[in-house]
Amino acid sequence: MRTAALLLASTTLLLAGPPIEDMKKQTVLIIMMAKTPKGVMTATGSGVLADATHVVTNHHVCCEVPPQFPSKVVIATGPEKTIDATVIWKSEEKDLAILELAQPIQAPKVVFATKAKIRIGEPVWAVGFPGSAMRLGNQNAIYESTVTQGVASRIFQGPTEEGGVEYVQTTAAVNPGNSGGPLFDDCGQVIAINRAKALSSIGGKTVTFAEGINLSIIVDEVVSELNKNHIQFTIGNACQAPGAVSSIPSWMLGSQAITLLVALGAIGLAMNKKVRQTVARSVHLGGGDRKAPPAPGPRPPGGKPVLVGSIGPYQGQRIPLSEKPVVIGRDAAVVNLVLPDNTPGVSKKHCQLSVDRGGRFFVEDLFSSHGTFRNGQKIEAGRPLEIRPGDRITLGSPQVGFEVNLD
């Protein structure tokens, strides 16, 4: 067994700018596939190399598949090129995981910078594979990471019931698919793991992305686990690269704003069909892609589709519905409509509701522990069910309920 090596960089870092190409090489595309009753489902996320054969990522990127479904995690390095990955440590509470690779990846050595080295107001860089960007360009563009810049706004501790994880809040743009990817300082050191971005519901009327509020888990939360697993890693000094900004932008939120968090893990629709089939073959799950239903016609004239809270924490709230599902549950890392952690009968990721272009409403139970009910009848998990305006949807118990309707 190797002895853990914690290597301390002894030189002061003085760079004219971050080593962008090195940062991109240190960031990997993670693909998780699972065989479910609906077919092979694919999800993507990002990760950062701790060394040549170990990757740090989010728990929700690699480890959210119910145990009854066969699944596999791979690192995609190019067209029809994947490396098998095994989860050797995971923490749902911290939303972190460590993967071990079947083959090494050659990349510049990663240097981590802990909380004490982070300077508020310093430039930061988020690198990853956001799903929206992966839809652009040709097939090879899928394997090209995206780089965005912002500043470190503050460091704070999350709720005790979520493990008290410490976050750095930044303005570096992140989107679904960035989950698990690295946040670098201006010297190219990894200071945090990207996890979530904020949503706001203003007065219960709209749900929109809040600008410049993105959360990343500081690396202090994972370096101890790297050490326990005998993985060599390097801790660097505080970044002293020139160009750090001296002020932090302020962000005004209305007094009636309800702040939510949306996880950054992208669902497999981010990849085109050919790539999904290639990955499906490589992970030996079979089944191929689930065929999409015929596209419905234009939405009939009428009001705007909304989800209305009928009982519970969102009673009276009206939340717009679209083809992008509203996912309901207790874990802000994996849902975009968050219920209090002590809500009875509600799972961390419980159910989702949506409306198609033809104006049809759907509800789907996401394999919750206590079920989802339509008008008092439990629905089948994992299978979208068409519902009608006025139908009562309850989660686990009669204490949390919603209806769909038209405004």
UniProtKB/TrEMBL annotation:
Keywords: Hydrolase, Protease. Residues 326-379 form the FHA domain. Residues 293-303 have a biased composition (Pro residues). Signal peptide: none annotated. This is Trypsin-like peptidase domain-containing protein. GO terms for biological process: proteolysis. CDD domains: FHA.
